[in-house]
Amino acid sequence: MDSQYCEPSWTYSPSPYYDDSHRRVRAAMRKWMDEHIPEKKVVEWDHPLEYKVPASLPRAAGEAGILPTYVHGMNNGEILDPEKEMIGGVKVKDWTQFHTFVTLDELSRCGSAGVVWNLTGGLSIGLPPVAAYGTEALKKKTIHPCIMGEKRICLAITEPGAGSDVQNIQTTAKLSEDGTYYTVNGIKKWITNGVFADFFTTAVRTENGISLLCIERTEGVTTKPMEMMGGWGSGTTFVEFDDVKVPAENLIGEEGFGLMLIFMNFNLERWGTIVSAIRFARVCCAEATAFAKRRKVFGEYLIKNSAILQKIGNCVKRVEACQAWLDELTYHMIKTPENDQRWIGGALALLKAESTQTLEMCAREAAQVMGGISFTHGGAGSKVERIYREVRGFAIPAGSEEIMINLGVKEGMKRGRKLDSKL
């Protein structure tokens, strides 16, 4: 390790949030990553529209007890046996959001949004609404196959004319006269994992407002891959629904409650984005430090140049600040009742903006330190080159930075008034 800042402080120092169980999970994840996702493979898989990440990888992650950890609520005893052991030997009943942080943080060390999102992008946001509010028949059909990597699921909300403005979606679902099925028509865009998905947790406009349906890949469902700037292994796609018949039992929750479920899900999506953004930023710092320690310019190692130290130091201080805030908010997510977590949503929105801006800064500064190799696909600068392309994939999805900052400030003021009323 070229610097202590290459890793979060809990890995080498006492912490009020982490203990030996988290260190066991970290060690097991690192071993699994070395075996299944070495950098050589990541570079090999990083090509647009080719989707080279093998279908066996999600299955391997499911068998290792990794995929189930990304489904919020899996430790409540309803989804998995409380005595079942996840990766690292931690039982389901003892698993917390901090353990999930460790698995996602370690996965994100690969520095590839395509790989991270291939495994987690659809599952972590598409399955929780089904697991929490789906019918028993729907749960039976989706949960186990998805957490074992045998089937894939995604979240389909965004449309060509509806991004951060979720209420503007135009996809419709009309209930049949006998009430047994919905007919769905519409187009979704920028849907992560849509290329591979067997199930689409979809925002639709029903008679009673916006609702969520779990739509199976069947007749009338068409997916068209999209060529993105980065995140190439994630299978981002257009999804078109053309007179798709969906069983009424695939309604998630009740008609008209879709927006509430979507907004509740946003906290988890943004939390996951923050975790990966901070680790990607840390990877940039680590790569720049390692390069500066071995690269000589005019007879001196770059790391001895004060300008280089300033660049690395300015990045590190923002990464560590984001990590500290994330740890605090993760603790509050565990301890605060779900019906009182709205204020956490505001804080997560602010941290989502700050962490993605920090990532952008770290990618830029690492590229400046490393020079031409950071502009080269493959080779010693591959991680920084890849991450630089993927920054916008963190800054825009799950709420753009501008929307996040506005939301965070507004929620903070609402919380302030509520706290004043209790004095």
The fold-level CATH name of the largest domain is Butyryl-CoA Dehydrogenase, subunit A, domain 3
- Structural class based on helices, strands and sheet pairing: alpha+beta
Q: Care to count the β-strands?
A: 10
Give the strand content. Answer: 5-15%
Extract low-pLDDT stretches. none
Helix content: 40-55%
Q: Class of the largest domain in CATH? A: Mainly Alpha
Average pLDDT for all residues: 94
Structure annotation, total helices: 13
Largest sheet: 4 strands, mixed
List the domain count as a whole number.
3
Shape descriptor reads: globular
In CATH, what is the homologous superfamily of the largest domain? Butyryl-CoA Dehydrogenase, subunit A, domain 3
Strand order of the main beta sheet, please?
1-4-5-8
* CATH architecture verdict of the largest domain: Up-down Bundle
What gap, in angstroms, lies between the N and C termini?
A: 49 Å
Q: Radius of gyration, Cα only, in angstroms?
A: 22 Å
Strand/helix succession: HHHHHHHEEEEEEEEHEEHHHHH
Family: Belongs to the acyl-CoA dehydrogenase family.
GO cellular component, one term: cytoplasm
Domain Acyl-CoA dehydrogenase/oxidase C-terminal: 258-408
Protein name: Acyl-CoA dehydrogenase
Keywords for this structure?
3 domains; Butyryl-CoA Dehydrogenase, subunit A, domain 2; 423 residues; 4-stranded antiparallel beta sheet; alpha+beta; Butyryl-Coa Dehydrogenase, subunit A, domain 1; single chain; Butyryl-CoA Dehydrogenase, subunit A, domain 3
